[in-house]
Write a structure and sequence with these properties.
The structure holds two protein chains of two kinds. Chain A has helices at about 5-25, 30-55, 60-75, 85-100, 100-125, 130-135, 135-140, 150-155, 155-175, 185-205, 210-215, 220-245, 250-280, 290-310. Chain A is mostly helical. Chain A has two domains: about 5-75; about 85-310, no CATH class. By secondary structure, chain B is mainly alpha-helical. Chain B has two domains: about 10-150, no CATH class; about 170-225, no CATH class. Chain B is about 55% helix and about 5% strand. Chain B has helices at about 25-55, 60-85, 90-95, 110-115, 120-130, 140-145, 170-180, 185-205, 220-225, and strands at about 10, 15-20, 95-100, 145-150. In chain B, α1 runs antiparallel to α2 (about 60-85) and α2 (about 60-85) crosses α4 (about 110-115). The longest helix of chain B is centred in the N-terminal third of the chain and has 33 residues, at about 25-55. The radius of gyration of chain B is 26 Å and the shape is elongated. Chain B starts with 7 loop residues before the first strand and ends in a 6-residue tail after the last helix. Classes of the chains: A mainly alpha, B mainly alpha. At the A-B interface, α1, α2, α3, α9 and α13 of A face β2, α2, β3, α4 and α6 of B.
Chain lengths: ~325, ~230
């Protein structure tokens, strides 16, 4: 087939496909329109292959390459993953959470190990408290006050809530994204948080203030620690897929793990906002009885775990 | 398969499709523009909050500020790319766009993933793009995305008839000449080039010049002889 005949015969088809592409950019395409577009795309791809081999560099070949690229962009992609919030929280999140259960267990073990280490250090060497909490907080402890009281006395609760929520969100996001450095950042985050919690608890034990600390963290602590563990476990998962991809190509392993890890992260993020409010409005409030704070903490933890462990049939991947 | 470059993908029916991958230069420039807009958005947020909320609800001003900056920090790029089909304002200005490794439209998940590691990419992204033939930064590798030049299908004069014996090189050269002839400022050179094409037509297919006056403007004569038309 010569060039002019090829162009004359096939040009109406290319024009039609270009019009359909432009139309689908402006409105959602129906089933029939999509079917027509898919057929046109196939024809354009074949014409592109012919033009690229027989008439490379010509205007027709360049136009066909542009049409084929635009058609590929519009007709292929990740649209299947677009789902509503309800579907996400009731299916995608539990599924992703349960797939990384082993890593969450590992994260818990690392956290507990670091916490025990921090506790032992602080009990055996109380001077460590000075370096961890700072002289003002220690002075407060000596006078029988927790440093956490200043959370609501120095700034309005709304501001403190926002600050705490965004800070916790940033910690979770960094622990997650740092997974790409072979899992070192989530590992550091887990060990540091565990060590700090254990050491602080040890220091408050030394000043007979551990009960007050327990009361303060009882409403928000259980879920906050769980969320940090879960996000760090997602980051560890990314790191593991990078270091040990198994029998899959590394790029594919990382991509698949990152998608699951993202679902886990997105399922955790809204809870940090709730915890920000609890940490400033409920945790430091002396008028709310300790058992009620414990009940709130356990309820929040229970709701999160019930959602995460919800039984969902495994989707085809 | 051996001659397929790394920027090529195999589409439907194993048809090779070359992706015009955006390099380090255009991507860095787009990022620079985006960070400029981000800085302006931050300042605007501060003033908007200061003027409006400072007057209406001063107690909520810091909350607005804290959440605003957090959203700008973590959501500015991802939000734009999800809302504008893989483009940010900077990418739009540079005419580049994010696509999947298969050339398709990336979903919100992939766009979120590639932007969540942006902080790390500020440190190692440039080096990674420089050493990768597909100019992928860490976020691209994690999300399975590429950034390509957003070329709309080209339009240019297509020859309606072709003298016998002309191959793809001649066709491409004549079409390129006709597409750019109006922009050539050197009229003498333009005429010279058109005359050379006319001479080739006269040699290979003199019948195509029938009915065209010898005094006709050469570019118009080439256009008429080859029935060049806009596609």
């Amino acid at each position: 087939m010569d060039y002019s005949r090829f162009v004359r015969l096939r040009k109406p088809l290319w024009d039609g496909f270009e019009e359909r592409l432009a139309g689908s950019r402006q409105r959602e395409a129906g089933y029939e329109a999509l079917e027509e577009m898919a057929l046109g795309y196939r024809q354009v791809l074949h014409d592109h292959a012919l033009a690229a081999s027989r008439f490379p560099g010509t205007a027709a070949a360049r136009r066909l390459q542009g049409l084929a690229l635009e058609g590929t962009r519009q007709l292929t992609g990740d649209r299947a993953e677009r789902s509503g919030l309800l579907v996400f929280f009731s299916r995608s999140f539990p599924r992703a959470f349960q797939r990384q259960l082993g890593l969450t267990g590992l994260a818990l073990a690392l956290f507990l190990f670091a916490a025990a280490w921090g506790l032992a250090l602080a009990v055996l060497r109380p001077a460590l408290g000075l370096s961890l909490l700072g002289p003002r907080a220690v002075q407060g402890l000596e006078e029988g006050h927790l440093w956490t009281e200043s959370l609501v006395t120095t700034v309005p609760p709304a501001v403190a809530s926002s600050g705490i929520a965004t800070n916790n969100l940033s910690v979770a996001l960094m622990a997650w994204s740092g997974g790409v450095l072979a899992g070192l950042v989530p590992l550091y985050s887990l060990l540091l948080n565990g060590l700090m919690l254990g050491a602080i608890f040890g220091v408050t034990l030394h000043y007979s203030m551990a009960g007050a600390l327990l009361e303060f963290i009882s409403a928000h602590g259980p879920l906050e620690i769980t969320l940090i563990l879960v996000c760090a476990a997602a980051g560890l998962g990314i790191g593991r897929s990078l270091v040990a991809a198994g029998d899959r190509p590394r790029a594919l392993a990382v991509r698949e793990t990152a998608r699951d890890a993202l679902a886990v992260l997105l399922g955790c993020l809204p809870w940090f906002v709730v915890l920000g409010l609890v940490e400033t409005l409920v945790s430091p409030a002396p008028q709310i009885p300790f058992p009620l704070k414990v009940l709130l903490g356990l309820t929040l933890e229970g709701i999160f775990l019930a959602l995460a462990f919800r039984s969902v049939p495994e989707a085809n991947r | 398969m051996a001659d397929i470059g790394r920027e090529s993908i195999l589409g439907l029916d194993n048809i090779r499709l070359d992706l015009p991958v955006a390099g380090l230069g255009s991507r860095s420039l787009a990022a620079f523009l985006d960070y400029l807009v981000l800085g302006l958005a931050g300042v605007a947020w501060l003033f908007l909050g200061g003027l409006v909320l400072g007057y209406l609800a001063p107690d909520w001003f810091p909350v607005f500020l804290i959440f605003g900056f957090f959203l700008l920090d973590w959501g500015f790029f991802a939000g734009q790319e999800i809302g504008m089909g893989g483009r940010t304002l900077g990418k739009k200005a540079l005419k580049i766009r994010v696509v999947t490794a298969e050339g398709g439209t990336p979903g919100p998940g992939a766009l979120l993933i590639r932007n969540l590691v942006r902080t790390l990419d500020l440190v190692i992204g440039v080096v990674m793009m420089a050493i990768d033939p597909l100019s992928r930064r860490l976020g691209d590798r994690l999300a399975g995305t590429l950034v390509i030049h957003d070329r709309r299908p080209e339009t240019g004069p297509v020859l309606g008839r072709v003298p016998p014996g002309w191959g793809a090189r001649e066709l491409a050269a004549v079409e390129a000449f006709l597409a750019r002839a109006a922009e050539l400022e050197d009229r003498v050179l333009r005429r010279e080039m058109a005359d050379r094409i006319l001479a080739r037509i006269r040699r290979d297919a003199p019948e195509m010049l029938a009915g065209i006056s010898a005094d006709a403007e050469p570019v118009a004569a080439v256009r008429r002889a080859l029935q060049a038309e806009e596609p």
